[in-house]
Structures are given as C-alpha cells and as structure tokens.
C-alpha cells in the first residue's frame, strides 16, 4: 500500500495510581526524524521506543509524546505482607537455633527486605513495559491512518494521470495535421516574401524542420513514464522518492513538447500537462 507521511494516533491506559497517555504525530520530511517527549520516569525506554518507530516508518518527522497523570485518589500506600514476614521470622528463628550467637534482624532490616512491604504503586519496570506495549498498539492505529491518507493521495495521482493520458490522446492524432498546416502557412509566407524560390530547396528545409519539431518520441516517453507511475502506485511500499524522480522526467517531456510547439493547441497541451504534473508533485511530497 501507499503510505502518507502525515498521520496521527493517540492512546490512553490506566494503571494503578494513574494514567498513561501517548500521542504520535507525523508530517512530511525528507528523512526519518523521530522526536520523543518523555517524562523522567520513562526516559530509560527511549531507545526501545525509537527502535519500534523506525521499524514501522522510513520517512517523515514523527513526534511521540508521552505523559503520566497521577490520580489524586490513588495515594501511594504501604502494606505489610504478614505471611511472608512470618516465614522470614521463622527462618531467622531456625538460624538462631543452629547459631545462637547470630544477630537477629532489626525492624529496619525487615522493612527493607524485598517482599515484606507491598506498595500500590506500579513498579518502574512494569510501567516501562506498559509504555512499550502502548506504543506497539499505537503504531498499528498510526500506520492505519497513514494508509487511509495514502489511499486518498494515490487516487488523486491516478486522477491526474488519467487527465494526462486524455490530453495525449487528444493531441497526438492531430500532430501531423498541425505540422502540415504550419508548413503550408510558412511556405506561403516565404513565397510572398521571396517570390520565386526553388521548390526542392524548400522541401528539403521543411523536411529538416519537421524532423526537429517532431514530438512523437517525447509523447512516447511521456506515456512510458505515466505507465511506470501507475506500476509504482499499484506496487506500493516506499514509493515517494521514485515518484518524485518520475515527476522530474514527466516535466522534462512536457517542457520539450512546449518548446517544439508550432501551434496554440500543442502549447496549451504542454501547459495543461505541466499543471497536472505540478499538482502530482505537491501530493507526492507527502508520500513515504
């Protein structure tokens, strides 16, 4: 599929003692530029978040903003794990039976012993994993929004390609007639200006001029580039840079058509082609 570099997604998750909110915003950029806005408690997961974002996006300026909101009603509390403490005291008593001179555990040591006290606050490592899991889920919604936008951009480009092909279909059959008409008018002007002129000489010069003014090759390349743009749009993937290059090639052929123009019809066709190409180029700046 075609992905836009513009996207947005947001998610919130409640946890014991508060709420985590995360946003992803993206705009077009030449390269991938990831900016993270993290609270101090979650700065340790910065590399992990960057790695996951880079795996899902190749271009664009992406801002990931994470905030933690403490719930006032959830005041941090400590609770004594009585069963665990009793087991610890029993083990200590057994040790003193075997080693009567062993010093007993103080209250401070018991309180610091892991597992004796339980808090309603979320452990840091659990909060960090929650943040990573939220981003993984958020990236799915984020890329879905970029895909929807990309599909719209794709349709805009296809419509402009249809317009270009219609212009080529209309002007191409008329080119021989346009060139013959221009040659006839030019011949009459030369006859009026110079009087008697070698007819064979005029024909030779006109043949050379007609060869220079022939745009059939340019129209052929124009059609080939249009087909390649359609192929890339159908294939999807990271297509932005390739499409941007093809816009340059399309514009080159449209310019050549205009420079070789011998009538207002071909000049107008060249202008209309360049307008459509510029419209596509602007949209392609948003494609990954």
Short description:
With 288 residues, the protein is α+β, with helices and mostly antiparallel strands.
- List unreliable stretches of 5+ residues: none
Query: In angstroms, what separates the terminal alpha carbons?
Result: 11 Å
Helical content class: 55-70%
What is the H-and-E element order? EEEHEEHHEHHHHHH
Overall mean confidence score, pLDDT: 83
- Strand ordering within the main sheet: 1-2-4-3
Per DSSP E runs of 2 or more residues, the count of β-strands stands at: 6
Helix and strand content put the structural class at: alpha+beta
Shape label: rod-shaped
Largest sheet: 4 strands, mixed
What gyration radius follows from the Cα positions, in whole Å?
36 Å
Provide an overview of this structure:
The chain is α+β, with helices and mostly antiparallel strands. Helices cover 62% and strands 15% of the residues. It has helices at residues 46-56, 82-98, 107-112, 124-171, 175-194, 199-213, 216-235, 240-259, 264-284, and strands at 7-15, 18-27, 32-37, 60-70, 78-80, 117-119. The strands form two sheets. The chain has a four-stranded mixed beta sheet with strand order 1-2-4-3, with helices on one face. Strands 5-6 form a two-stranded antiparallel sheet. A hairpin with a 2-residue loop joins strand 1 and strand 2. The longest helix has 48 residues, at 124-171. The N and C termini lie close together (11 Å). The mean pLDDT is 83.
What labels describe this entry?
288 residues; alpha+beta; four-stranded mixed sheet; 62% helix
Structural topology:
Layout: E1 7-15, E2 18-27, E3 32-37, H1 46-56, E4 60-70, E5 78-80, H2 82-98, H3 107-112, E6 117-119, H4 124-171, H5 175-194, H6 199-213, H7 216-235, H8 240-259, H9 264-284
Parallel strand pairs: 3-4
Antiparallel strand pairs: 1-2, 2-4, 5-6
